[in-house]
Design goal:
Helices cover 30% and strands 29% of the residues. It is of the alpha/beta class and 491 residues long. Strands 13, 14, 15, 16, 17, 18, 20 and 23 form an eight-stranded mixed β-sheet that branches. Bound molecules: adenosine-5'-triphosphate (ATP). Residues 11, 14, 16, 34, 36-42 line the site of adenosine-5'-triphosphate (ATP).
Length: 491
Amino acid sequence: MLEIEQLYGGYDKDLVLEDISFQVRKGELFGILGPNGSGKTTLLKMISGILPYKQGSILVKGQPLKKYSTKQLAKVIAVLSQHTSEAFSYTVKETVSLGRYAHQTGFFNEWAQEDEKIVEEVMSRTGVSALKEQPIQLLSGGERQRVFLAQALAQEPQILLLDEPTNHLDLSYQKELLDLLKKWTREKELTVVSIFHDLNLAGLYCDRLLLMENGKVNRCETPNEVLKQDTIEEVYHTEIRRHPHPKVPAPQMVLLPESYHQVRNNVKITEKDMAINEEFIVLKAPFSLRTMSSGVTGSGMGWHHTFVNRHVDKNYNCENHREEMRDYLKANGFEPSETVGMMTAVHTEDVVYRLYEEQQFSLLVLVTAGVGNAVDVSKSHEHSYCLTPGTINTWLFINGELTDEAFIQSVVTATEAKVKVMHDLNIQDAVSETMATGTSTDSILIAATQNGTVLEYAGSITPLGKLIGKGVYDCTEEAIRKSLERRAKRC
Ligand SMILES: Nc1ncnc2c1ncn2[C@@H]1O[C@H](COP(=O)(O)OP(=O)(O)OP(=O)(O)O)[C@@H](O)[C@H]1O
């Protein structure tokens, strides 16, 4: 649809763009990214024919741009620029209707039924129908942006050029506008070329991205290839992190504030941060820790600064245990969204915790363990499904910076250590009468300060893995012994 070959140009004698080459296919949503002043708007101006270029070629539908008359080009390309000024006091409908100019025929440019239908349709699609009699000066920035988008769409272009279309739009209109453009690229094969400052929106919606740097093409590929941490850090000169979108396969980039480096310096999580009473064990960190957990609240990957292991009766049964837990946390002065909360039928005084220190990092292990629900995982199909309070809760607080890989390996290593204890203490599954590997609702928490030594791995023979193996084994063994002794005394 669009072929740009070795394009050079700028303003007067200043060369802004150098050796720009790329192609845009029909029906593609194509994003242009780049830092301020990298030449994005200049490129868009050249494609729309507003700014002449010095060297190279621009082909629109296979024909040189220079061969199109203004009216011919307006039937193919519509432009929504960044700062559209409105010199006259037009109403919304009049403004949108101007988009039909290139399609009007006859000596008096007659307004046909078709024109009316299209204007009404695009006003409805952009959510401005209710404002149609209002003068555009009286509209908010976002409303005005939608009116000019409607005007561009009324042109029924084959190519739509947009300069930061989501500028001024609130969250829901950003989504609606981009959903609409995406739909039109698919259903009407509209080709969209759009400048984005929001890398995440570009990554979510665009088929391909062109990354500009100092007037040149740095990269022109799929979002996954362009939105790479090192590429973006290099081009934008700022520290960022890339992570996957939780619902769709699109890369997302996040900024790191300067304060990120200051808050954590030299702070270590130790047993001094804990408190124990009859109802719960709590650990309050001085700042949020990166967590991976299977807690009742705060499960999955996240950031939390409060950790609560709450004692419940062993017959605890609640239809909505997550909601009940949230209410409980609130009632006790903990903020549920910032708390990893677990339940245990074990008496809180039977908790075992120990700090393990290496030269460069340390690990606080905390375990509550009852084995009333012991299960041999290879025979679990013989059990009926019933959620009873988690009976081995394992907490690991690591003073160090873990990779995602190390978080996952920490869970594996801790689980292996726990299984070994079950075997060494000969804990049986009461249903299958075989050696148990855990209990039916065990829970785990890995929490890291993300400060200090980088711990890339946590497999069993890595430095962190060795500490986890020993710590979890020792603490779990002692915790199970304590709980067995309590049970024996009761009997
Ligand atoms: N009308 C103009 N006359 C002279 N130089 C200009 C003109 N418009 C832009 N420039 C220069 O061209 C370069 C590229 O500007 P351009 O607006 O294309 O960048 P951009 O990537 O769109 O930036 P931003 O993200 O800030 O909108 C800049 O150095 C700018 O100063």
